[in-house]
């Protein structure tokens, strides 16, 4: 019996040693990510051919490390400085799925990461010009709703598109559903705007010539950086009448605080996933920025109807395609460089994170 007790004691001691050395078998340390660039489409390869929204970031910031994301649309890419870029794919569904896959991937620590959605967009000539860059306080979904063909609507209606659970267009009060309206951290957005507002954006004789074909308060302006808001939905719409609808839709769902200027196809999907990941403690929603740059106007020029104008709108052939890609990188990289260069300043406390959750953007 004493011998048995001796061997039991020895076994327990060995087991205790294994427990104490358990970290040797623990999961590898997650890769800390400081900034995530969210791009939506690429024309071909990530490098070396006609660029989409991802390519300039990969080539110029040397995002040479490739991390496969089996549940996402595309692999993530990183450099040695903590900068990551991810390609979501087009449309809100692709975007939501890819961001959720990235956020749940156990290889990355995204708890302190800043997110910059950096893509091209259609723009309203009333508010913004070709090649310009817009930081958004508000992103409003355009997909959720009822619709009646405009040829069958009552004569007093301005549109056949009706808010979900309402009976008439723009029926008061507006009651947005979860995932329909996103307010970004206003202090962070204002900080990004003030940091980049004087960054020069390239103009050209070609852009000037195209701008002359359009009416609108901002249509003739050279490229500039501004603070205006976005409508987001998977349907690519076009035309003056729908531009008017979008302006009213954004104002309606933001109680008059949002000012429509850009139209995109993914960002409500991305933002919804980021909000859900934040609720799980995996990301910080107060560190999210939305930057869209104008590749084309969202309506027809003088002398052309909406259908013929829409036929011209194809990826790679937008009137300001390359200038808008350059603007997205130029303005976005200014923020990335500031964050990475002064990371100890921004790592633990997001700009404006101390604000109450119901804080509203400044006018």
Written description of the protein model:
With 363 residues, the chain is of the alpha/beta class. The protein contains ten helices and 16 strands. The strands form three sheets. Strands 2, 3, 4, 5, 7, 8, 9, 12, 13, 14, 15 and 16 form a twelve-stranded mixed sheet that branches. The protein has a two-stranded parallel sheet with strand order 1-6. It has a two-stranded antiparallel ribbon with strand order 10-11. A hairpin with a 4-residue loop joins strand 4 (76-78) and strand 5. Helix 3 (92-104) runs parallel beside helix 7. It is globular, with a radius of gyration of 24 Å. Mean pLDDT is 91; it is low at 7-25 and 355-363.
CATH fold-type name of the domain at 30-141 and 183-234 and 262-346: Rossmann fold
Task: Supply the CATH superfamily name of the domain at 30-141 and 183-234 and 262-346.
Answer: Nucleoside phosphorylase domain
The helix-and-strand class reads alpha/beta
The percent range for strand residues is: 15-25%
How many helix segments? Answer: 10
Q: Tally of extended strands? A: 16
Quaternary state, please?
Answer: single chain
Largest β-sheet summary: 12 strands, mixed
CATH architecture of the domain at 30-141 and 183-234 and 262-346: 3-Layer(aba) Sandwich
The first-level CATH class of the domain at 30-141 and 183-234 and 262-346 is given as Alpha Beta
List keywords for this structure.
single chain, 363 residues, alpha/beta, Rossmann fold, twelve-stranded mixed β-sheet, two-stranded parallel sheet, 10 helices, 16 strands, disordered C terminus
